[in-house]
Give the backbone structure.
Amino acid sequence: MGFVLADNNGWLNPTSSPPFETIPLQTFANLRNAVNSKPPVADFFMWEHFTSKRYYTNKSIKKIGEIYTPWSSWKIVARTELLESSTNDGDERLEDMFRAIDKGVKYFRENVEESVDYISSELDYSREDAREWLGTVEFADRVRGVEEGVVGRTIEVLKKAGVIKAEGVEAEGMIGIKSD
């Protein structure tokens, strides 16, 4: 997301150095500690709104802005061998998984109070925040497949950031199953 921020502000130039240093800190706790340490290990970090809300509400971190993702939060990835065997009627585990996730998403949507209970007890959200989050999040009706345009836009940002080389990386080659 840092690269999306940089791109949105015109800071990315594929011929120059990145506008900031990326420091992988692994966990949300490490990120919070990094901006609060003396001296600070990091100047800022980006994290999901509702996960970080309780920490800026209790003033252990300070919210300075928001940026929205130009892509969905989650992608499903499989080994190439598994994907190749499933397209030739060999391994049905992927199709079984897609059906199971679709069924779970349907249940999650249809049982809102149970979903709020789960989110507020297992994901450290308040009940109010869980309800608000459910009002903002979109779930795919079918998780099988990826839209080529989403991958293409992601590749363009990463090329501008110098994370991937400009030549030889195309969305079509990265997608095993396209959306219907």
Observations:
- The mean pLDDT is 85.
